[in-house]
Amino acid sequence: MAGNAGFREAKGDLRLENVTKSFADFTAVDDLSLVVPRGSFFALLGPSGCGKTTTLRMVAGLEQPTSGRILIGDTDLTGSRPYERPVNTVFQSYALFPHLTVRDNVAFGPKRRGLKNAVQLADEALDLVQLPHLAARKPAQLSGGQQQRVAVARALVNRPEVLLLDEPLGALDLKLRRQMQVELKRIQTEVGLTFIHVTHDQEEAMTMADTVAVMNHGRIEQMGAPEAMYDLPTTAFVANFVGQSNLGAGRIIDTDGDRLVAEVQGSRVKIPKARSSVHSGEVMFGVRPEKVRVRREQPEGIGDDVKGVVRDVSFIGVATQYLVEVPSGAIWSAYEQNLDVEPIDLRPGDEVWLTWQSGHAFGVPPDDDAAASPMVIDTAAED
Amino acid sequence: MSTLAHVGAGASGAPTSPSPEPAKKSRLAYLLLLPGAVWLLVFFVIPLVQLFTVSLQSQFPGYPGYYYRDVNVGNYWRAFTDFGPHFGRSLLFAGLATFFAFCLAYPLAYAMAFKAGKWRGVMMILVIAPFFTSFILRTVAWRQILADEGPVATTLNTLHLLPGGRITETWMAVVAGLTYNFLPFMVLPIYASLERADHRIIEAGGDLYANGFTTFRTVTLPMSMPGVLAGTLLTFIPAAGDYVNAELLGSDNTKMVGNVIESQFFRVLGGFPTAAALSFTLMAIILALVFVYVRKFGTEELL
Amino acid sequence: MSAPNPTAYRPSAGKRAGAWLANRFAIIAAVLVLFYLFLPVLYVFIFSFNNYRKSNIAWNPNGSPTLKHWMDPCGAPGVCESLVTSLQIGVIATLAAVVLGTLLAFALVRHQFRGRTASNVLVFVPMATPEIVLGASLLTIFVQGFSNVGLRLGFWTIVFAHIMFCISFVVVTVKARLQSLDPRLDEAAMDLYATPSNTFWKVTFPLVLPGIIGAAMLSFSLSFDDFIITSFVSGNETTFPKFVYVSYLRGIPAQANVIGFSMFAIALLLVIGGSIISGRRKA
Q1: How far is it, in rounded angstroms, from Cα A118 to Cα B180?
Q2: Domain boundaries of chain C, sorted by first residue
Q3: pLDDT tens digits, C139-166
Q4: Which residues span the domain enclosing B146?
């Protein structure tokens, strides 16, 4: 390790212990504790300003935590400099060195570590991202997608213990983004490194990651496998940030076997006990739009239902989205798959019934903050 | 004058990340700063202080060329009463030269930024290249071009467009020389600001206003204002202090304050205090004008 | 105002003629202005072939054009000595100003410290001060103050003065380059195991280098062509511009035209050559 006496070898899970980062006027990361198992693809998901990028920068060593510890395995990395950590970053704007060729960009890290075969390693990394033919070019001569791959190769070539991706696909157009998502996932499976992916795009996080952590106001709201989190959000924020939800504030008034009975703005709805993080008092009732059916007549034997008036119909190809005003004045959203040759012909102003299986409903603690989210729907359900 | 130079720092950071600049130890900053700052202190600030004290000195009676420390405000009074017209000419000629330079520079800068395409670099070089032929040589060449028997004067005389019959040794020659000599200082900042301007905004302006002139007045010109501001200062300041053009192209009736300062220092025995007072007054006037100008057109980019 | 009308980008049919004119107007005006810039240079060139008698102001049809001044550019007494002096001063002043100014620029862009605003003002004000005031103040200090420490007007006082006014221009040029650098490049380097000194020499410095080279070229041309400040602080030393100015009354020798035009030609060739090379390297 020529010229790099301070470099710390470390292997194992990445652990953040009670990490806090405060700036002059606000706390970006607030007492965060987290374990990322070795070899997993982990996504930090959240809106801008939630502290996810600051968390990433602290892992990289570009920021130092105000308090708390950052470890890989049993090695404490807190306080060490970025060049001393077995961690590499794919920057949001790629930050490729404009004065170096693609090959020299990729060989930069191995050269700094004094590896004799730096150029050979660089060429192998370029093979991995399928760009060996562009090795002699300068970054300015590459397209956005190609630059992105070079940035990935430049980080990967070092075989870091943890690879950090800071919104790496943000600058790409939709089609290229989808393609790169698949590509990154393939590379991660191939090399088996720990990937930490910061993004505000919930679809991207869910497509790629084994584990997703949703951050808000410097804290983790919920963490888990994407499917589980989508199916059963535990906070109103997650219910709206990960997918959309029809939500309504109410209170729990009764139980019915393994179900809770809640009164939501004058209507009675049921929530499975296992699907509610509150079991008494104030609750936020929720159901996902694609779980809600739209019917002309009041249906029987499905579950709970509510009457409403269609306000908007938008055809999106695989499905049709209905926006329905329920009696409380709130707007519910529902998706119907376009299975029939002639779909139900509904127009704004038509009266309909919305219905769902009560097993699909969920309950989360009430949260004023959720009202700020765009798709929150304050609703009252009528039996 | 970083309008010449101002380039938006590549701020593409996510809003979550605060300034990526780590707070570095200021000791290193002072080490970097020290040599240059000391140089500027010793060879700029201290000389100015000295100039100010000289401007208040008095002559030893009977010993021409010898002075004693004093607070002789009369030097400033003399500077104004005896050489008021020279101050007036300096400001007037410099103002005219700045205006003409703007009129000539803008089309050139505009063509460089928007019409030149791959010739941009070449044009840039061409604007700077004349600098390498000595400024004095070029000014002497203007004297030849504008001479009574030269092409410009003879043409104008044939057309009866030249009232006095000649250009050299008139204010016209001096203003022409000043305009010429400082033109590149006007072109480059305007070009820099036009080049930096977002061309799409100008296109949008072209869509909104059918009239090309309206687009120019409401969109293009305001966007190039930082460059125009820097350019006018970079032209006006050296022009107001110049004496070479007045010396080589003008006559006794077109002498500017620079000529007076130069001759008081080098050709008038005991002229030091007056010359210093004149210099200091000139600097004060120009700094005041710069200050008012920058205030009026408002830019913090200048520093 | 003789400013150009920009093209209306999607002109309605009726406006197209006006747009066409506006389009050409800028180009035509630009070519005319460039011609204006070069006209005196052309005169300097032509009169370098003049077989003049007493003063090289009027064209002498007898024996002109002649190559004799080009064959013997040092033929006039003092002309080549003044050129050498100017070149020496230019090189020394440029080197010193580039070092001092680059350090200053790094301090101002990359660091937060007390007195930063004051430092910015200290760098800016010399550029906003007329040369004659700079020259006058230096003259008073050299004659009345620094002469006590053994500094006499001459070669070194010119060098010191030139360093002073070049520093500000170096700072402005290098600062612009530094500010345009993405700070994330430094972070990326550190992330890729580069120590702070590695980061500086492998990333920051190569990226700032074009700005430093530009600053050096600017400094050299400012120093080489300076007359006003030089005339105040030069004493008996003669630089090339001072040589031309002083010999104006007696008659400027055509050798000065030869040298003046050659400097122009050399600079033009160097710059064009340089841009061709850097253009090829980019491709």
Answers
A1: 56
A2: 13-71, 79-252
A3: 888 887 776 666 788 899 999 999 999 9
A4: 83-271
A375 touches chain C (CB under 8 A): no
By the 8 A CB rule, do A27 and A218 touch?
yes
Q: Do B20 and A62 touch (CB under 8 A)?
A: yes
Whether residue A97 lies within 8 A of chain B, CB to CB, comes out as no
Provide the ipTM.
0.83
Pick from A97, A121, A162 the residue to mutate for testing the C interface (most C CBs within 10 Å): A97
**Between the CA of residue A219 and those of A49, A62, B17, what are the distances in Å?**
11, 20, 16
| Partner-chain residue, chosen from A82, A138, A155, that has the shortest CB–CB distance to C282 | A138
Contact between A138 and A98 (Cβ < 8 Å): yes
Evaluate whether A46 touches A85 at the Cβ level (below 8 Å).
no
The token pair at C144 is: 């009345």
Which of C137, C205, C242 should one mutate to test binding to chain B, selecting the residue with the greatest count of B CBs within 10 A? C137
Residue A5, pLDDT score = 52
Cβ–Cβ below 8 Å for C195 and A88: no
- What is residue B294's predicted lDDT score, i.e. its pLDDT? 77
**Of C187, C193, C207, Cβ closest to residue A109:** C193
Cis peptide before B64 (omega within 30 of 0): no
- Nearest residue on chain B to A217, judged by CA atoms? B16
The more confidently predicted of residues A162 and B220 is: A162
Across the strands, what pairs with A16? A34, A70
Residue among C144, C179, C268 whose CB faces B50 most closely: C144
Entry pTM: 0.79
Is A232-372 a CATH 2.40.50.140 domain?
A: yes
CB contact under 8 A, B46 and C245: no
Stretch C168-180: mean pLDDT, rounded? 90
Instruction: Select from B5, B32, B136 the Cβ nearest to the Cβ of C106.
Output: B32
Higher pLDDT, C188 or C10: C188
Q: Classify A14-227 by CATH class.
A: alpha beta
CATH superfamily of C79-252: MetI-like (1.10.3720.10)
CB spacing of A28 vs B18 below 8 angstroms: yes
* Summary mean pLDDT of chain C: 84
3-state SS string for A57-108? HHHHCCCCCCEEEEEECCEECCCCCHHHCCEEEECCCCCCCCCCCHHHHHHH
The 10s digit of each residue's pLDDT in A176-200 is: 888 888 888 888 888 888 999 999 8
Domain ranges of chain A: 14-227, 232-372
- In angstroms, the separation between the Cα of residue C86 and the nearest Cα of chain B is 11
> Are A97 and C184 in contact (CB < 8 Å)?
no
φ, ψ (nearest 5 deg) of residue C220: -60, -45
Q: Is B16 on the interface with A (CB under 8 A)?
A: yes
In a domain, B246, yes or no: yes
Q: Tens digits of per-residue pLDDT, B252-301? A: 888 888 888 888 888 777 778 888 899 988 998 888 888 888 777 755 44
Cβ separation A109–C184 shorter than 8 A: no
pLDDT digits (tens, 9 = 90+) for B179-208: 999 998 899 889 888 887 766 666 666 666
**pLDDT tens digit sequence for A261-280:** 888 877 788 899 989 888 88
pLDDT at A134 over 80: yes
Is B24 inside a domain boundary?
A: no
Using the predicted structure, report yes or no on whether residue C31 has a pLDDT greater than 70: yes
Distance CA A255, CA A259 (A): 6
Q: Which of residues 204-263 of C touch A (CB under 8 A)?
A: 206-207
- Tally of domains in chain B: 1
8 A C-beta contact, residue B16 and residue A53: yes
A18-56 pLDDT tens trace: 999 998 888 889 899 999 999 999 999 998 888 899 999
**Contacts of C among chains (3+ CB pairs under 8 A):** A, B
